[in-house]
Structure formats: structure tokens, C-alpha cells
């Protein structure tokens, strides 16, 4: 330890943290240098109502691209500030508590977890979780049994109009991503008779079918998507779980049935562009949507938090019963979080579905990242 660190150690606890170093610009593609890993100090003392936590996992999600802009374009998302620590979904263990709801050793989670090794957080920001619900796989509380799973299940229940026995066909774009891979499986569990995924590599498509129970999958980077969709969905599309928007969605919408439903989950193909959310459909697609009375209401999981507890319990039950397959990849090191976030936005083509979730370990803590390849 250098002299500077010794002095700092006397003033408080030394921690590592990741801060926003620069902004990519609204139409820019992020670069690794947009983030900076730095050493910092944190007060030793925990105040009344506060909890000191050690970070175990952090989640990196597509919405964070908006938080890199000065104006996120949304009233429920705050921009990350330059040279300030980034934050998002996280999970960790309580080391010291001065809040009645928490005790040392509790596992806790928050949507506003700072990207740092140890943090003192207001207890009101934290929720206690029960590790047994996910067979001890704590990272699942940020994914399949967390916001991602909630998004997939509540999206389908609130906007999908799925009726068991109604012989419905569901199409999922971004199907190999965290939400998409769950949404397809949940589509079957909720009663769709056919589920077809759209993903970016043959390997992802193959895993969607062989492991996740999709009836078929289309590699949108190869061949004619419209033609494959016609062959694989001969009765048309009744429910479209849309994660990506853009050309893929236009193609799917053109094959949707009368009175069918779009679950407007996300529009990831548009996030490096300065366009409003949700981006308006091109005129031809909008005409089809209107003529066929296709619903396309905005879905935001945060609007359904009153259903969180019951929905998480349902997801945990499916996970325990083996009905929901979850894929995770482990990548270690807080230092890599900026680089992985970058990959998230750049979408490296060599990555596999196994990288749907990355986990980072740095010294004695682990960070989990959900990346989009
Ligand atoms: N509405 C809500 O409340 C809510 C909550 C959470 C997430 N979301 C949204 O849900 C979507 C998925 O999130 P996630 O956490 O599942 O993300 P993720 O794990 O990063 O997966 C996203 C997937 O999208 C695909 N993709 C990326 N860029 C694309 C492009 N330009 N064209 C086509 N496909 C592309 C990627 O795989 P390929 O290799 O297959 O292209 C990737 O598998 C995002 O749009 C996110 O904003 C919404």
C-alpha cells in the first residue's frame, strides 16, 4: 500500500468503484473509455437507518445506454453524472446494519446499487431476498427471478392477451437475450401453442430450440426473415414480444393477425440513435397495425411493482421445477465492467448465448453483468 493509500485508509475504508468518464453522445456508439475504474474512500461509520453492504453481483442492462446521455429522454431514468459512480441493479451481503429490517449476513438487493466494492446505503433502498428461493443462485435475483423475469412474465400477462388453448403463435425478437429467452419459455408456460424466436447467430438459435423449448428460431443475419417467418408461422403471428424494434419488427408486424398483440418491451436496435421512445412505426407498418387492430401499448415493468412479490414467487417456482431454463456466463473483475458494458452496446457477433449474463469477480467479490452480445 502506498503512502497516499495509508493516509486515505485512516480517513475511511478504501474501495474500488466505476465512474462515468465521458459521454458517447446521443447518436454515438459507446467506447470503453466512457468508464473509469478508480480507488476511493468511504466513511467508516454507518449512520442510523443505513446499511454497509459488500457487492456480490451487478447487472448491466440496455436501459443504461440512456443513462449515459445528459438527458435520458425519460422521466423515470436519471442520467449518470460525469466522474460520479454509476449504479443499477445489484445484490450483496450486509456487513453492518443500523436499520431495523436488516442484520449482518442478510442478502439484499436494490435497483440503485452503486458500482463499487463496498457501499453504505440507505436501508429504505434495499430489499431482503431469500437465497433458497433460487437454490442459492444469487445472480438470478437480478435476472430470471428479478427485473428481467418480471419483465418477461408481466409483459406477457399485462399486454400479451395469451389464452391457454387458443392455439396462439408467439414470436420473440431479441430471443437470445435475457428477457427474450425467458419470454419465449413463459409464452409456452402461459399457453401459446407455438413460439418462434429471432436471434443473431446459428448457435443462439440452436440453443433456443434444443434447450429453451422454442419451436423454431430464425437467424436474422442470414437468409430472408420474412420468408422464414411465413414458413414457421403458417397461421400468422398472434403475439409479438418485441425487444428490438426496427426492420425486424416491421417484418414481424407485417405477418401479424387481425386483433393480435405486440408486447412493446424494448427497442434495442434504436438505443444508439437520438429518437423518441417508443420510436414511431414507419407509415406502411403503422397502416398494417391500424388496419389489423394490432395493439401496441407501451409496457414498463416498473408500473407493475405491486405484482412484484407474487410474480417473483411464480418465477422462482418455475426455476426450481426446471420449467424455466436460465443461462449465465461468468466474467470476472470490476475493472471489466466498462468494457463489458461497451460490448453490450456494440453487440459482438462472436459471443454466444452463454454470454447472456456475465459475472465479474474482482478480488473477493463478484459482479454479474447481463449483456446483449
Ligand atoms: N419494458 C420494460 O420494462 C423493460 C425492462 C427490461 C428490459 N427491457 C427491454 O428489453 C429488451 C431486452 O433487454 P435484455 O435485458 O433482455 O437485453 P439483452 O440481454 O442485452 O438482450 C438483447 C438482445 O437483443 C439483440 N439485439 C441487440 N441489438 C440488436 C439489433 N440492433 N437488432 C436485433 N437484435 C438486437 C441481442 O442479440 P442478437 O445477437 O440476437 O442480436 C440480444 O440478445 C431491451 O430493449 C430492453 O430495453 C424493457
From TrEMBL:
Every Alcohol dehydrogenase-like C-terminal domain range: 180-273
EC numbers: 1.3.1.48
CDD domains membership: PTGR2
Catalytic reaction equation(s): 13,14-dihydro-15-oxo-prostaglandin E2 + NADP(+) = 15-oxoprostaglandin E2 + NADPH + H(+); 13,14-dihydro-15-oxo-prostaglandin F1alpha + NADP(+) = 15-oxoprostaglandin F1alpha + NADPH + H(+); 13,14-dihydro-15-oxo-prostaglandin E1 + NADP(+) = 15-oxoprostaglandin E1 + NADPH + H(+); 13,14-dihydro-15-oxo-prostaglandin E2 + NAD(+) = 15-oxoprostaglandin E2 + NADH + H(+)
Keyword RNA-binding listed: no
Gene3D superfamilies: Medium-chain alcohol dehydrogenases, catalytic domain, NAD(P)-binding Rossmann-like Domain
GO biological process, one term: prostaglandin metabolic process
Domain of life per record: Eukaryota
Protein name: Prostaglandin reductase 2
Lineage, highest ranks first: Eukaryota, Metazoa, Chordata, Craniata, Vertebrata
